């Protein structure tokens, strides 16, 4: 991985410039800038309501910003034609916090759907490939026949991850993937993301509140504060930022515990 200081905006797979988002009079982002580099796992953190999910939604095209530009794969995502947009969307996968699976479809059908719709596969081909994605996400094959309502929280996340991976994306967007999981399940999910990034060469944009996730798998962390990205750098740099929220978050009891727990893993790298 290239050292953060050696990279420039032109190396970015996602480039956000002067982004402004507002709902009525409520300004969420004002002239926000962010680069995401190919192959990294970027953790996006910030207090509640700082606009982490809105930023993710702006990048994936679900929220039209008031101003600014978003380039993905070097293409202007906001100016793209519907065809260009759909070609771009095929190159990234999104895992929403709720999983957003269709409740009336089995796990296999949920994963097969984008393959039939966007890759033009027949149902048997799509369902066969869905089985491979189910295994990739660490689920047993039997989970494919289950409906979302019968899955545990951790299984829902993995099924949603399998669907996000359906079209072999280059970028994976994850909105609070470990929220609601017990610590063991959350740790296992973090390791799965890390393994998939390494094996598939994914770029990961990860919105999280989970300090353990930041310390165990993120290459860089972007902190949202006061409508902007306050800092986006390695944890070492971010932890030292002169900001009250950063101080409370990273140097409070939970931050210290996560740092301590991650130390043996970092030392063995
Ligand atoms: N569709 C919408 N209409 C109006 N306001 C919205 C809409 N979506 C988000 N907001 C507001 O934008 C702000 C940022 O929301 P967002 O969900 O991005 O925060 P967040 O940083 O992800 O928060 P959390 O950590 O609590 O999930 C919030 O004040 C929210 O109420």
TrEMBL record:
It holds the Pfam family ABC_tran. Coiled coil: none annotated. InterPro entries: AAA+_ATPase (IPR003593), ABC_transporter-like_ATP-bd (IPR003439), P-loop_NTPase (IPR027417). Keywords: ATP-binding, Cell membrane, Membrane, Nucleotide-binding, Transport. Gene3D superfamilies: P-loop containing nucleotide triphosphate hydrolases. GO terms for molecular function: ATP binding; ATP hydrolysis activity. This is Phospholipid/cholesterol/gamma-HCH transport system ATP-binding protein. It comes from Eoetvoesiella caeni.
């Amino acid at each position: 991985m290239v050292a953060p200081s050696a990279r420039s905006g032109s190396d970015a797979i996602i480039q956000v410039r002067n982004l402004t988002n507002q709902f009525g009079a409520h300004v969420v982002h004002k002239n926000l800038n962010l680069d995401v580099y190919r192959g990294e796992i970027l953790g996006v953190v910030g207090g509640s309501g700082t606009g982490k999910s809105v930023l993710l939604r702006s990048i994936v095209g679900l929220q039209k910003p008031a101003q600014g530009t978003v380039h993905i794969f070097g293409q202007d995502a906001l100016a793209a034609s519907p065809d260009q947009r759909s070609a771009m969307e095929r190159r990234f996968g999104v895992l929403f916090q709720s999983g957003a699976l269709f409740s009336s479809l089995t796990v296999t059908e949920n994963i097969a759907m984008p393959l039939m719709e966007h890759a033009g596969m027949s149902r048997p081909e799509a369902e066969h490939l869905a089985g491979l994605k189910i295994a990739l996400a660490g689920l047993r094959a039997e989970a494919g026949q289950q409906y979302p309502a019968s899955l545990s929280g951790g299984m829902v996340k993995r099924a949603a991850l399998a669907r996000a991976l359906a079209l072999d994306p280059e970028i994976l967007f994850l909105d609070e993937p470990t929220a609601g999981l017990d610590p063991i399940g959350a740790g296992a999910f973090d390791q799965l993301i890390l393994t998939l990034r390494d094996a598939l060469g994914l770029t990961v944009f990860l919105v999280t509140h989970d300090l353990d996730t930041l310390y165990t798998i993120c290459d860089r962390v972007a902190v949202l504060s006061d409508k902007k990205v306050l800092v986006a750098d390695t944890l070492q740099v971010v932890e030292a930022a002169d900001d009250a929220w950063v101080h409370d978050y990273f140097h409070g009891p939970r931050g210290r515990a996560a740092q301590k727990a991650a130390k043996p893993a970092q030392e063995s790298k």
